Amino acid sequence: MALSRKSSSKRLGLVIFFIINTVIFSCLGLWQVQRLGWKTDLMARLDTLVHAAPQAAPMPEQWPQLSQEANEYTPVQLQGQWLSDKEVTVYANTELGPGYWVMTPLLVSSSDTANTPTTVVWINQGFIPTEQRRTPRNTNATPGQTIQVAGLLRWPEKANLFLRENVPAEDRWYRRWPDELSQARGLQQATAPYFVDAYATGAGQEWPRGGMTQIQFSNNHLSYAITWFVLALLNIAALVYVLVFDGKRQRSTSTRSE
């Protein structure tokens, strides 16, 4: 009798265990299905967004309302003067191999409102291979010359374990953080919280090579959903086995013992 009660308790514990697992795995599968719909909509929205006509880049009065979720990859245009002597090259590993992003501050002033202060917007002019790092750029721009730039609004990279910290004292740069770049180059003007990935300037462009923004998102939510649902089905199968087949075996064993 004691053995029968012990077997029943063990069987009940397994039933509860498999039921809990089934509920958890099913919920995770449903969550991944929801994430799949969200990611698909996001990718479709961004594909439409990046091909839209550029709009005026946000000015200081608009900066507090900006966010990565709502504004990144928006096509923008702006005009100003290069501060080429303040250029920073940020290490990058792209489809063209290792090299650097050419980050150059653009001195921007609004022609619409006299009260709008002169500001700095960092422009990613594009990619250069390592051997081009010390090559002078913007040599055709005369001091004070106003130039126009168009590209995609980008948000600074988020810190993570795989992104090395900048070392300004050694002029080694790994992340594009506008405030940190301005501080290192001694810029006193207000710095935009975003930077701009400049478009490619033409088919015959050499270096820096613009238009290399990677707008790709991993979309593994379908495979994750399938995995969770398969695990849920396996637990259902195990539950059926415990309730039906193992139950019959235990009843048969109990009958023979009597």
Quickly describe the structure.
With 258 residues, this protein is α+β, with helices and mostly antiparallel strands.
What does this structure look like?
It is a single chain. This protein is α+β, with helices and mostly antiparallel strands and 258 residues long. It contains 4 helices and 7 strands; from the N terminus they run H-E-H-E-E-E-E-E-H-E-H. It has helices spanning 2-49, 68-71, 178-184, 221-257, and strands at residues 55-56, 75-82, 88-94, 97-108, 119-129, 147-154, 190-198. A 5-stranded mixed barrel has the order 2-4-5-7-6. Strand 1, helix 2 and strand 2 (75-82) form a beta-alpha-beta unit. The longest helix has 48 residues, at 2-49. It is elongated and about 90 Å long.
Features:
258 residues, five-stranded mixed beta barrel, 4 helices, elongated
Average pLDDT, rounded to a whole number, is 83
Alpha-carbon distance between the two ends: 10 Å
Shape: elongated
Number of helices: 4
Biggest β-sheet: strands ordered side by side in the sheet: 2-4-5-7-6
Question: What is the number of beta strands?
Answer: 7
Structural class: alpha+beta
Strand content: 15-25%
Order of helices and strands: HEHEEEEEHEH
Low-confidence stretches: none
Q: Can you summarize the main beta sheet?
A: 5 strands, mixed, barrel
Helix content: 25-40%
Instruction: Round the Cα radius of gyration to an integer and report it.
Output: 29 Å
